[in-house]
Design goal:
There is one protein chain. With about 200 residues, this protein is of the alpha/beta class. The protein has one domain: Formyl transferase, N-terminal domain (Rossmann fold), CATH 3.40.50. It is about 35% helix and about 20% strand. Strands 3-2-1-4-5-6-7 form a 7-stranded mixed β-sheet, with helices on both faces. α1 links the parallel β1 and β2. α1 packs parallel to α6 and α5 packs across α6. The longest helix is centred in the last third of the chain and has 25 residues. The protein is globular and about 45 Å long. The two termini are about 25 Å apart. Bound molecules: 5-O-phosphono-beta-D-ribofuranosylamine. 5-O-phosphono-beta-D-ribofuranosylamine binds next to α1 and α6.
């Protein structure tokens, strides 16, 4: 049984895609052991609770400094006892110690075809605003392993999505979610659960 902890910051539509896939058996032999958010009001936490998944908020303002917050976040992740950490719309830079401790055991979904439209400042709608401003005809989503950089870890899988005439950032974001994100993330987790994609081990 693959145990996964999912880290979220917002609406949790990627989390919902994972929950649904586990419940429908599209992700085999996997248990979501915990959902952790840096926002106490993240709707993603409610999604977890509706499905009986332990959910916890670790909020920066509750701690005296960044180091204490990082320590609390790592402690919450460690307590989950997960094999795999999934960043699903998680907008906090992970502490370097966590990256080291969970080398090749943290994956992230990014709503563009990395290395385009990624890195510092490229998250959520901003990604799609930049895509439309540049006028590219194809965008998409990427699942990658997380390393010390921002969206710089080894790419696992990508899926292209057409940019259409008249797209707004919101319309494009929804298409990228529906046609790429919500398909790729469950598929990668299932591959890991099935042993098709190896995690961990390498330092
Ligand atoms: C989405 O744009 C997703 O691509 C990015 O975070 C945003 C919110 O995702 N990773 P979610 O609805 O909270 O899963």
């Amino acid at each position: 049984m693959l145990k996964i902890a999912v880290l979220v910051s917002g609406g949790g539509t990627n989390l919902q895609a994972i929950i649904d896939a586990v419940e429908k058996g599209k992700i085999r032999d996997t248990q979501i052991v915990k959902v952790i958010s840096n926002k106490a009001d993240a709707y993603a936490l409610q999604r977890a609770e509706k499905h009986g998944i332990p959910a916890q908020a670790v909020v920066r303002k509750d701690y005296p400094d960044k180091a204490a917050f990082h320590e609390a976040l790592l402690a919450a992740v460690d307590a989950a006892g997960a094999d795999l950490i999934v960043l699903a719309g998680f907008l906090v830079v992970l502490p370097p110690e966590m990256i080291r401790k969970y080398r090749r055991r943290i994956i992230n979904i990014h709503p563009s075809l990395i290395p385009s439209f990624c890195g510092d400042g490229f998250y959520g709608l901003r990604v799609h605003e930049a895509v439309l401003a540049r006028g590219v005809k194809v965008t998409g989503a990427t699942v990658h392993f997380v390393d010390e950089g921002t969206d710089t870890g080894p790419i696992i899988v990508q899926k292209a999505v057409e940019v259409k005439e008249g797209d707004t950032p919101e319309v494009l974001q929804r298409r990228v979610m529906e046609e790429a994100e919500w398909i790729l993330l469950p598929a990668v987790i299932d591959d890991i659960a099935a042993g098709k994609l190896k995690i961990g081990g390498e330092e």
